[in-house]
C-alpha cells in the first residue's frame, strides 16, 4: 500500500507505507486520520499534509528512507561513560550527506526533526558535530557564519573559563 | 513562497538585492536569536535550530569542543545549561577558589557527574595555601 504526502509547495509524493511509518509525525497523522495499512480506501482518499517540508527536502528525506527502510531499529547509546551521545554514521550516510552544502544540511536536519525520523536526525546531528570537532572558537564562528554578540566582559569571562582547553 | 510574495517586484531590482531587503522579515520569522546584522550574507542556518537540536549536536562533542562552541550569547547560554560527564576530575586548589559543582557518584565510583560552574580567580584572592592537591574519584 502507498501513502500520499503533500509538501509545503503542494508537491505530492506517493511512498510505500513502510517508508511513511518511518516518520513518527506521519505515523501519528495517519493514526489520527484512521489510515491503516489494510484499508486501501483510506489510503487512497487521504493525503498527509507536511507544511514544514519543501519538495526538494522531501525528496532527500525519501531517498534516505528508501535506503534504510529495512534497517533493524538501532538503539543510540545516550550518555556513554564520557557523557557523550554516540552515533556511528555509516559509509552510505556519509556519502549521502557529504555533498550537501551547510544550508541544505540544516534544512534536512529541520525536516528530520519535524518528521521525527530519528536515524536521519542522528546522522545529521553527528555530521555537524564532526564538523565542529577540533575547531577553535573563531573557526566555528566563521564556518557557521555566527555573528558574535558577546560583550567584551562576556568574552573575557569565557576566555578565562576556556583557557585550559585552548591550544 | 518567497518569490510569490507580492512585495517583490521582479522587474526593478535583482532578486538577491530584494532578498537582502527581506532579511529582517525572514529573521523575524526565524526568531531573534538568528538575527544577524540584518544582512542576507550573514544569515546563519545553524542558529535557526531550536535549542534542543543545538544541544543534541553539542552533546556529541568532548567538553573541550563544547566549551569552544560558545561563540555567541545563545550558544553560551545553551552550553551553560548542559551537563558534562567526566571519569576523573582534578581540582587544582591554588588556581580555583570556588568550584560550584554538584558531584554525584555512581555506585561503583567509576565515573562522576559534574555540573560545571567553575570560577577561576587570581592567586591573590585565592587561599594562601601553595600546595597542589589532586583529588581523584
TrEMBL record, chain A:
Task: Return the similarity comment.
Answer: Belongs to the SKP1 family.
Q: Which domain of life is it from?
A: Eukaryota
State if Magnesium is listed as a keyword.
Answer: no
Q: Which residues form a coiled coil?
A: none
Q: Does the keyword Ribosomal protein apply?
A: no
> What is the name of this protein?
Skp1-related protein
Q: Where is the SKP1 component POZ domain?
A: 2-70
| One GO term of the biological process aspect | ubiquitin-dependent protein catabolic process
Q: Which Pfam families match?
A: Skp1 (PF01466), Skp1_POZ (PF03931)
Please name the InterPro entries in this protein's record: SKP1, SKP1-like, SKP1-like_dim_sf, SKP1/BTB/POZ_sf, Skp1_comp_dimer, Skp1_comp_POZ
Q: Where is the SKP1 component dimerisation domain?
A: 118-165
Q: Which UniProt keywords apply?
A: Ubl conjugation pathway
CDD domains, sorted: BTB_POZ_SKP1
Cleaved signal peptide residues: none
TrEMBL record, chain B:
Q: InterPro entries in the record, alphabetically? A: F-box-like_dom_sf, F-box_dom
Output the SUPFAM superfamilies linked to this UniProt entry.
Answer: F-box domain (SSF81383)
Q: Where is the F-box domain positioned along the sequence?
A: 49-88
Output this protein's name.
Answer: F-box domain-containing protein
Amino acid at each position: 500500500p502507498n501513502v500520499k504526502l503533500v509538501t509545503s509547495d503542494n508537491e505530492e509524493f506517493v511512498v510505500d507505507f513502510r517508508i511513511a511509518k518511518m516518520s513518527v509525525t506521519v505515523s501519528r497523522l495517519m493514526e489520527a486520520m484512521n489510515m491503516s495499512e489494510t484499508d486501501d480506501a483510506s489510503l487512497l482518499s487521504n493525503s498527509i499534509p507536511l507544511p514544514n517540508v519543501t519538495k526538494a527536502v522531501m525528496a532527500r528525506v525519501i531517498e534516505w528512507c528508501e535506503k534504510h527502510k529495512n534497517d533493524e531499529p538501532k538503539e543510540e547509546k545516550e550518555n556513554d561513560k564520557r557523557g557523550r551521545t554516540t552515533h556511528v554514521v555509516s559509509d552510505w550516510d556519509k556519502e549521502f550527506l557529504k555533498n550537501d552544502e551547510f544550508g541544505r544540511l540544516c534544512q534536512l536536519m529541520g525536516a528530520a526533526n519535524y518528521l521525527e525520523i530519528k536515524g536521519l536526525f542522528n546522522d545529521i546531528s553527528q555530521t555537524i558535530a564532526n564538523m565542529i570537532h577540533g575547531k577553535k572558537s573563531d573557526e566555528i564562528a566563521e564556518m557557521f557564519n555566527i555573528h558574535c554578540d558577546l560583550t567584551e566582559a562576556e568574552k573575557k569571562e569565557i576566555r578565562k573559563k576556556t583557557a585550559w582547553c585552548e591550544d | 513562497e518567497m518569490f510569490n510574495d507580492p512585495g517583490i517586484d521582479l522587474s526593478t531590482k535583482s532578486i538577491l538585492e530584494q532578498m537582502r531587503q527581506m532579511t529582517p522579515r525572514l529573521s523575524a520569522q526565524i526568531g531573534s536569536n538568528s538575527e544577524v546584522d540584518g544582512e542576507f550574507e550573514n544569515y546563519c542556518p545553524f542558529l535557526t535550530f531550536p535549542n534542543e537540536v543545538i544541544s543534541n549536536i553539542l552533546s556529541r562533542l568532548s567538553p573541550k569542543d563544547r566549551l569552544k562552541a560558545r561563540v555567541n550569547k545563545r550558544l553560551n547560554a545553551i552550553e551553560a545549561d548542559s551537563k558534562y560527564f567526566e571519569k576523573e576530575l582534578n581540582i587544582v586548589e591554588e588556581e580555583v577558589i570556588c568550584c560550584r559543582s554538584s558531584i554525584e557518584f555512581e555506585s561503583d565510583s567509576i565515573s562522576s557527574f559534574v555540573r560545571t560552574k567553575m570560577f577561576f580567580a587570581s592567586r591573590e584572592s585565592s587561599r594562601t595555601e601553595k600546595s597542589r592537591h589532586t583529588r581523584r574519584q
